[in-house]
Amino acid sequence: RNGEALMSSILVYTSPARGHLFPVLGVALELQQRGHDVHLRTLSPELERIRALGLNAEAIDPALEAIELEDWRASNAMGALKIAMQTFGARAELEVDDMLDAIARTSADALLVDTNTWGAQAVSEASGLPWATFQPYFTALPGQGVPPFGPGLPRATGVTGRIRDGIVGPLAFGKLQKLALPGINAPRITLGLTPLVSMQSFLTRPPRVIYFTSETLEYPRNDWPENFRFVGPGSWGPAAEAPDWLAEADRPIVLVTCSTERQEDSAILEAALQGLPGVGFYVVGTSAAFAPGEIATKPPPNTRVERFIPHDAILDRAAAVVCHGGMGITQRALAHGVPVVVVPFGRDQLEVARRVEHAGAGTRLPPKKLSSARLTTAVREAISREAGAQRIADSFSESGGAPAAAGVLEELLRHNTGVRPSG
Fold first, then answer.
1. DSSP string for 145-162
2. pLDDT, tens digit (0-9, with 9 covering 90-100), for 9-67
3. End-to-end Cα distance, the chain
4. Contact between residue 336 and residue 393 where contact means Cβ atoms under 8 Å apart
5. Rounded distance, CA 372 to CA 269, Å?
């Protein structure tokens, strides 16, 4: 395209969420290092950061970015799921023209699209170009021996458990399918593609799914679709220099984080500030979607609360992490061999909490049971599971990371497998 220096033009398209952008940035940088001309279309507040890395970046349609995910307003899990699916569906309608424009402007040879961008996926399929999705959270795809996705149920044991899965599984997945398929199919119909009749078809449709985790943290199953590629977590993060004040921490550090997408998880930081400093821990808190002033508990001695701190700088010294169960912070902690306490408030977080517990890499504390005393107990128990966290860290290292993910895109380019049968 510009001589021999640039091999292919690759378009990376994300939903307006940092938790989806940051994992794929490492892949984009790896592709650029290999000589590809990489273009990102993503949320506007991150353009300056991305361009500073030497990558091409443009903003998604502002109208699309304005459709915020407000599932935290729901009073129950089913209500939150409905809001999320409606949000993705509303964005999908705008993604069609936005993605078509991005392909035209970049003369893309291959496409890497966020699993939450249903319109962009439909355009990718219709384009005939090599394409893949990236998935930064656990898949809802059913599998033998895997609990029904959503409520964070433990793995079934014995006849009773199998009966539970046989009843709850179809109900839970059927509800997801009923809520999601209208939004998934609307852009497909617009583009002349055959509407899909099941979520299984949608989840296995991309020629490749770059799955940002490892099999060690997933439930074991022998029926993984052939298009899934485990590459470990996206490890890119903002430059992480240890802040000067960290030197004052002369006791075990517990990193406590809130989600970057607002939900009611500030209670985690409240409980940590109220309980952990009094029993010998130094608490470093990041309030993220909340301004530090919104946290009702005034930080006592042996604590520090900031809105954002590069987590890697703290994780190098942390004894444990307490979080809401976002895949980003959970896997980043485990990648450092740091055990995790997950207090899941919604979305996929119940599944994250249960997998951390199942892997023996930390503990799970339901929000309804959250208190300073119970959190302290959960932290101590999590620290005792450091060996399990280190086992996950080792598996992440063996998964290949950004080089493995970049290799998936290059494989698609070599074979030009852009089109899959309709139906």
1. TPPPTTTTPPPP-HHHHH
2. 999 999 998 889 999 999 999 999 999 999 999 999 999 999 999 999 999 999 999 99
3. 35
4. yes
5. 10
